[in-house]
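Data deposition worksheet. Section B asks for the primary sequence of the deposited chain exactly as it was used as input, without tags or linkers unless they were present during the calculation. Section C holds the resulting structure in token form. Section D is free text for depositor observations; keep each observation to a single sentence. Incomplete worksheets are returned to the depositor.
Section A, Depositor: J.P.
Section B:
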Amino acid sequence: MAQLLRGKISIDPRFKHIRPTVYALSRVNFSGFSYNGSGSSGGNGQRRQNFYYQEFLRGPKFGGYQYYQSSRGYAMLVGRVLRGVLKLRYLVLGGAIGGGVTLNKRYEEWKDGLPDMKWLEEVMPDNEKWGQFTKNLLAVKNSVKDSIEIDPRLKQLSENKINEWREWFDKRLDNAIEAAETQQNPQIESSFQNLSELISDLYGATKEELRSKNTVNAKTLSADESRRRVETLQTQVDALQTEIMNVQLKYQREIEKLEKENRDLRQQYLILRTNRKQPQKKRIKKSLIDMYSEVLDELSGYDTSYSTADHLPRVVVVGDQSSGKTSVLEAIAQARIFPRGSGEMMTRAPVKVTLSEGPYHVAQFRDSDREYDLTRESDLAELRRDVEIRMRNSVRGGKTVSMDVISMTVKGPGLQRMVLVDLPGIISTQTVDMAADTKDSIKHMTEHYMSNPNAIILCIQDGSVDAERSNVTDLVSQCDPLGKRTIFVLTKVDMAEELADPNRIRKILSGKLFPMKALGYFAVVTGRGRKDDSIEIIREYEEKFFKNSKLFQSGVTMSHQVTTRNLSLAVADRFWKMVRETIEQQADAFKATRFNLETEWKNNFPRLRESGRDELFEKAKGEVLDEVVNLSQVSAKKWEELLNDKLWEKLSNYVFENVYLPAAQSGSTNSFNTMVDIKLRQWAEQALPAKSVEAGWEALQKEFQHLMEVARKTPDHDNLYDHLKSAVIDEAIRRHTWEDKAIDMLRVIQLNTLEDRSVHDKHEWDQAVRFFETSVKEKLQQTEQTISEMFGPTTSQKWLQWRSSTDEQSKRKHVKGELDKILASDSKHSPTLSYDELTTVRKNLQRGNVEVETDYIRETWYPIYRRHFLKQAINRAYDCRKAYYLYTQQGSDCEINCSDVVLFWRIQQVIKVTANALRQQVINREARRLDKEIKEVLDEYSEDDDRKQQLLIGKRVTLAEELIRVRHIQEKLEEFINALNQEK
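Section C:
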């Protein structure tokens, strides 16, 4: 288009001067604008807009006159209209709707239903679109630079367009304000969407109109009228901004009102909840088998010095690996509840299964509230997966099997009440993926459970393999040689019938084949070799097999010796018979144990109550938190004294070695001050804030530990908790870190303090002199100690303390004698020795037959010169005591050089302001954060029983724990015995 019109349209030469102005306006209105998400542009962008706008009104001057002619009207109109429209757009978007968005964000804390305002980023055009719009304007400018013909209809067209835009913006602004005043803002999303469409339409329409109207005549619109209309728009925008501020204030008042109502309602709720009487929970009557199972759980892992063993009956399921132990247990429980694997050892830990009758077929772990519906395959799959996870979690440290018991309860219609323990199968050979002690561990575990004289041994034998290959029968015969509590079960009889002679099976079931005896012999079929078969299918297959089996037809077996149903009836009957025979004896044994423990407690701790680890931990927790509260009672004066001492302890070495000594030994007052200023500024910008925070943290630890020590010295202190308290505090201190923003804050105040070089009054001058003198004396004392170690005892120490010098110390004394001569001849000697001086010292020593190296002389020189210099510094401190008024009058030209005092005064002021800032941080923030971290550590330890056993130790704790547990077991036993007698 530009090339087409270039040869046909002529342009007024004066229009060439409009380009810089239009370009400036385009940069101001587009590329110079930055949106910050709250509805307002940056301050610099606004100032640039005002500047270019004023320059545009004045007009560019060429040849001594300004162009206000009507021929410029169109260009001025385009620039001002675009400027006003776009500025109004930003103000509307940023001021009205952006303000509503900001208020909506504050409402999110009180109302969860308010919309998320992040979608504004998708509604607003990005910078790339505005940049493209700017490039398009520049392209339009280039396209019309050769010639422009002004159309007289511009005035009417422009006025109509402006009125149309103004009405549209007024309407959208009213909708936005109305939406912002509502509580839920139901129209805000549609309003933003319409505004987004407007921006897109305006952007496209403006670009197309400017391209199509390159022949429009703008002479009819005067500059004054354009200026007046722009000012009118500016007035309207200001009025809208004022209205938006009023809306924001209204929302603020509403928020404060809601907050007050919320606090009042919360207080009323707490009062009502406290006064309301808690309804008593209904006590659910436990079944007899559940009560017995709880007793067994309490006895699990019980051990005592009185050897009160757990001799209560349970059914122990033992057998070779893959002999069908788990399948027998599942058939009795009537559910496939255990994980399965082809040839792999799946049972890795003892699984205690409590069977009881109930209306629903469900399973539940002892330590979980979840119930698994055993009639649903999805729940069965989850139960098997959870059992496998628990088994694998119990095996740690490279072990293959574990003694940790997995307890679960299975309830269902027709189930026989009993407690069964499924053990890992006996193995003959270990595989490479097993631990080295796997075989012995399984054998030891099996013997441990079978050694209980009242345990019923359910011996499982695989009928499909040769009896001679069995390992379990020998173990069973060793533990129960008379067979008074053994029940033999032959599994996989369907496979055995095909492989073995029926007479052989008859011998097994009559007890004539194995060298072991049993109360009864049973034959069962627990599957068809398919993993997906349900218990119902397996039971039907078992009954059908035994009805058609040659074992029945030939009279080898009796009907009561087959099927898992008969097996479960026989096992349950024997189980309850042994429970009734042994429960009284077990209760009497624990009663005697309880009496012995109570007697021992009264003899050792007559005035103390038996408290378990949980109760002791709660008491220790309260004492630790009380000590944290005592931190808030420490006075501000004590905090500042403590922080001052700790700060100087951390900073003194750096002040002397890196600031004072290098500057003071320079030999010039001016260079001293310059070096001090440079080093102090570098120090304050880098190491000083971090060192200050480190000193504050150490001061907080020191004071907290001091409070703990004071508490230990009280008459009622119990040292039982000391180990626990120390561990908790150490862990909290290890986790605690000072707030990061504290370093930045300290850096600012320290830099500002170090800028002050004028001592304000005589009192501060005297304090600085004392501080300087005390610090130098401390350093001198350290130097004297170093010299004493280097040169050995003095003459008086040799005679009075009978001490002697070593050869090395004697050699150093010879060097010291030569160096003292140098200092005596020149009291203002530089810190280093010259080459001539080193040569002279070496030659003088050689005359006395003492051979030394140059580095040896320098090493001896440093402490000697430092003592000499520090003594001179102390003398200057004495001279500066009464030189304050002379210093204030003459300044750096003072006859007495007191720059040292001024330096230490600056250091002293930095330490004071730093200690004050750290004190405020400790009291207001760090003590509370430390309290929070200590509470977190205590909460973690309260859930960790192993940690309690490590931190709460001693005879008092172990004896109380054992007494509490024995008492609890005895109560459970008595409760079960009463219920058992009632059932009789």
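Section D:
The first strand starts at residue 61 and ends at 62.
The radius of gyration is 48 Å.
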